[in-house]
Every structure is written in C-alpha cells, then in structure tokens.
Amino acid sequence: MLTILQKEFNAFLNSPVAYVVLGVFLIATGLFVWVFPDSSVLDYGYADLQTLFNLAPWIFLFLIPALTMRTFAEEKKAGTIELLLTRPLTDGQIIGGKYLACLLLALLALVPTLLYYYSVYKLGSPEGNIDSAATVGSYLGLALLAAVFAAIGILASALTRDQIIAFLVAVVGCFLVYSGFDSLASVLQGSSAYYTSQLGIAAHYRDLSKGLIDSRDLVYFFSVVAVALLATRLALRSRNW
To answer: Taking Cα atoms as reference points, which of 152, 172, 175, 167 lies closest to residue 73?
Structure first.
C-alpha cells in the first residue's frame, strides 16, 4: 500500500493538477478571508476564521473530486488496470494507497492556512483573542470532511472509465452527503427533521466547528469513509462477475 501511495503522490506532484488545486484553494480562501469586504476578517471586526471554515467545504466539494477522478478511471481508460490488479497486491492495498495519496494532497492544502490562524492570533485585541478550541475543532472537521470527499471521489472513479463522468458523479455525491440531508430536513418538522439532518455531514461538521469533539461525530465520519471504500472494493471485484 505504501508503494502505491508513493507512486500516486509522486504522480500528482509531477502533474499540474496538484498545483492547480492547491493554487485555487489558497487564492480563493485568501481572497475571501482577507480581501473581499463582505467577508474579510479585517473588516468583520472579530478575531475568528469562520469565513475560512464556511467556505472551505464548498471549495473542497469541487477540488477533491478533481484530484480523485483520475485514480481508477485513468487506469481503466489506459488499459493498465488489469496489469495493476494482477500484481501481488490486494484490492484493499490498491484502494488504500490511492485513497491516502488523494487525502494527503487535500490535507496539504490546509497547511498554508495555518498562517491565517497565526495572523488573526497576532492581530487580536488583546493578542491571542481567538477561540483556539473552535479553530482546532474546525480544522479537524475539515480534515474529516476531506477524508469523506476523497472516499466518495475514489468510489466514483472506480465506477467509470471516463474522468469527467467520475468528477461529476463525485461532485453530486459529495453535495448530497454534505448538504442534501440538511435541505431535506428543512422541509420536515420535529424529531424527523433532526434525525434527517444528522445523516448529513454538515450537522457533524458544525458541531466540530464549535470545538465540541464528540465521539459520535468521529464515528460518523469514519463510518462514511469505510462504507465508501468498501463500495469501491465491491466495484473493483465486480470485474470478476
């Protein structure tokens, strides 16, 4: 699995895709956090990074599928998938290596944003006047969100040989899991609305963004990742049917 991880990660770094993804993410978040007056921290007057944590999931919704769309679709189109699957590797090792490479690159995009936290920390009045617990929870939520989106993207890529179709399926799947249940809950009432919203990512992400690291939220994220990766394994095994 580590060999696959290294191969895939190096392939990303040797292609313009990784740099485009990182560049788009950092430029978009930088403009909204520091430049645009309607969302700028400098004009908002409060020492927090809520703009970043509200915007990042929507950017990830498009950028992570752009990273994952080539993982299996390209192998199928090039005819190298059979060669890969005949190597002394299990399906789990192949999926795990490709998944971790995509996730690692997505997490790498978050590292430069730590400079935003440091800047707001220093600019606070008094210095350090920022809710660090909520910030840590929000970063954890973004990392887990990236893990779910990467798993869904890997599954979409395993279902088709066309990268564009894999991208579109992944975007729709990520959108439905992130926002679809919230939209459905908004038309319901009472306990049914609450339980419906809990099926989506947004409710658990909001809890983590408040600095409340609950085991139920962690179990939810890990469960969604596990289900998506198991479905990917099933999609690969379907070649034998």
So the answer is: 167
CA dihedral 35, 28, 173, 97 (to 10 degrees): -140
The sign of the dihedral angle between the CA atoms of 191, 196, 197, 199 is: positive
- For 121, residues 6+ apart whose C-beta sits below 8 A from its C-beta are 47, 127, 128, 130
> In angstroms, rounded to a whole number, what is the distance separating the alpha carbons of residues 59 and 186?
23
Query: For residues 198 and 203, what is the distance between their CA atoms, to the nearest angstrom?
Result: 6
- Taken in order 220, 202, 158, 19, the sign of the CA dihedral is negative
Band the pLDDT of 240: cuts 50, 70, 90: low
Q: Would you say 32 and 39 are in contact if contact means Cβ atoms under 8 Å apart?
A: yes
For residue 107 the two structure tokens come to: 């997490």
Q: What is the pTM of this model?
A: 0.91
Averaged pLDDT score across all residues of the chain: 86
Closest-CA residue to 131 (of 213, 32, 30, 211): 211
Residue 36: how many CB atoms within 10 A of its CB? 11
pLDDT at 241 over 50: no
